[in-house]
From TrEMBL:
PANTHER family: ALANINE RACEMASE, ALANINE RACEMASE, CATABOLIC-RELATED
N6-(pyridoxal phosphate)lysine PTM sites in chain numbering: K50
Reactions that this protein is recorded to catalyse: L-alanine = D-alanine
Name of protein: Alanine racemase
Cofactor: pyridoxal 5'-phosphate
Domain of life: Bacteria
InterPro entries: Ala_racemase (IPR000821), Ala_racemase/Decarboxylase_C (IPR009006), Ala_racemase_C (IPR011079), Ala_racemase_N (IPR001608), Ala_racemase_pyridoxalP-BS (IPR020622), PLP-binding_barrel (IPR029066)
Source species of the chain: Pararhizobium capsulatum DSM 1112
Pathway listed: Amino-acid biosynthesis; D-alanine biosynthesis; D-alanine from L-alanine: step 1/1
Assigned keywords, A-Z: Isomerase, Pyridoxal phosphate
Lineage: Bacteria, Pseudomonadati, Pseudomonadota, Alphaproteobacteria, Hyphomicrobiales
Gene3D superfamilies associated with the record: Alanine racemase (3.20.20.10), Lyase, Ornithine Decarboxylase, Chain A, domain 1 (2.40.37.10)
UniProt-annotated catalytic positions: K50 (proton acceptor), Y271 (proton acceptor)
UniProt similarity note: Belongs to the alanine racemase family.
GO molecular function: alanine racemase activity
Length: 376
């Protein structure tokens, strides 16, 4: 009987066969955290790691930031907190921004997860849970200061203040609110939200504040309180339109060429033939599409790069692939398995977002699970 031995490369190159390689530079993430911490000082910097750490891996990102001294982590939903909790040491505090959902109270309390209370009902519920468990429970208390999204509305504040006086079971760690236009330092919405936050703080004397997101951090110390909540700036997104010194990029993305071809003038390219070749063109089809976080709005607009040469996207972006014009490269440069740059030295995350008509947040959180991830 013959033993069939499958040939395996002795040192398997893990990028082999990868449709794309998403490189995540944890050192850059840590340097961004250090820079934000310094800018916030004497306030402390937390980390917002919702949506799987803005798509980069909540556990890996949080552990890297914990190693830099970060102890407060904000996620959006209770389910995310439950997943992250076992991966962080007990002294890491995990806050749930979306509030306290009915039925999660006991699990929240027993798993050392801290809710951001967004209404008097949530406060009452948390207080009842604490009373039943016969010990105080921590919480953050969020106010709506003008975004009309989450938080205690102004007209409910007096009732909340009264409820807190009567209930010694909930320990409010800080008062929170979220800025709607912090990426625009010139917006008067920042000033009016700061004024409303100051009014709210005066109604709850002696309790610390937690106000600024990434953009808010750069609006100045008035917006800092004792704890800032940066998200996007940690991951290399730019917190404001005009940044003198941009945040350090954290990700780069390279995708594989899966076919090359030469087409003649008149050839239709991609779904619905939205691009028709005007002359002979050399094309490369790439192994990433809108299911990999490269939005369909990049069709006939965006580009990728190879050794500094811009290769425009031609035709529609498909679910799993897209086609670029590589006519600017010498013949034979790209072949099956070559990698081209989508995000990197030549094109930033912000550039791709701008071409797609969206924001870096949406690109980051859409990158998906099909790329091979390489943490550095
Ligand atoms: C997402 C979020 C943040 C982080 O915002 P960035 O703009 O990414 O810095 C902070 N606070 C709240 C309440 C959020 O929802």
């Amino acid at each position: 009987m013959n033993n069939v031995v499958l040939a395996m490369p002795r040192e398997a190159d893990f990028t082999q066969g990868a449709s794309g390689i998403l490189t995540i530079d944890l050192g850059a993430l840590q340097r961004n955290y250090r820079r934000l911490s310094k800018a916030a000082s004497p306030a402390k910097a937390s980390a917002v790691v919702k949506a799987d750490g803005y798509g980069l891996g909540a556990t890996t990102v949080s552990r890297a930031l914990y190693a830099e001294g970060c102890r407060q982590f904000f996620i959006a939903h209770f389910s995310e907190a439950l997943l992250l909790r076992p991966d962080l040491p007990a002294d890491a505090q995990i806050f749930v921004l979306s509030g306290l959902l009915p039925g999660t109270e006991i699990a929240c309390a027993t798993n050392n997860i801290i809710p951001v209370l967004n209404s008097i009902d949530q406060l009452r519920c948390w207080s009842n849970t604490a009373r039943a468990m016969k010990h105080t429970l921590p919480a953050a208390l969020q106010f709506d200061t003008g975004m009309s999204r989450l938080g205690v509305p102004p007209e409910e504040r007096a009732a909340v203040a009264a409820a807190l006086k009567n209930s010694s079971y909930v320990n409010i760690m800080f008062l929170m609110s979220h800025l709607a236009a912090a990426d625009d330092p010139g917006s008067d919405q920042n000033i009016s939200q700061l004024a409303e936050m100051t009014r709210a703080a005066n109604e709850f004397p002696g309790i610390d504040l937690c106000f600024a997101n990434s953009g808010g951090l750069f609006l100045g110390a008035d917006y800092h309180g004792v704890l800032v909540r940066p998200g996007i700036a940690l991951y290399g997104g730019q917190p404001a339109a005009e940044m003198k010194e941009p945040m350090e990029p954290v990700i780069s993305l390279d995708v594989a060429v899966i076919q090359t071809r030469t087409v003649h003038a008149g050839a239709r390219i991609g779904y619905s033939g939205t691009h028709i070749a005007e002359k002979e063109m050399r094309l490369a089809t790439l192994a990433a599409g809108y299911a990999d976080g490269l939005p369909r709005s990049l069709s006939n607009r965006g580009a990728v790069y190879y050794r500094g040469v811009r290769l425009p996207i031609v035709g529609r972006v498909s679910m799993d692939s897209m086609t670029v014009d590589m006519s600017a490269l010498p013949k034979g440069t790209l072949a099956l398995g070559s990698h081209v740059e989508v995000i990197g030295r030549n094109q930033t995350l912000e550039d791709v977002a701008r071409d797609a008509g969206t924001i870096s947040y949406e690109i980051l959180t859409s990158l998906g699970q099909r790329y091979t991830r390489r943490y550095r």
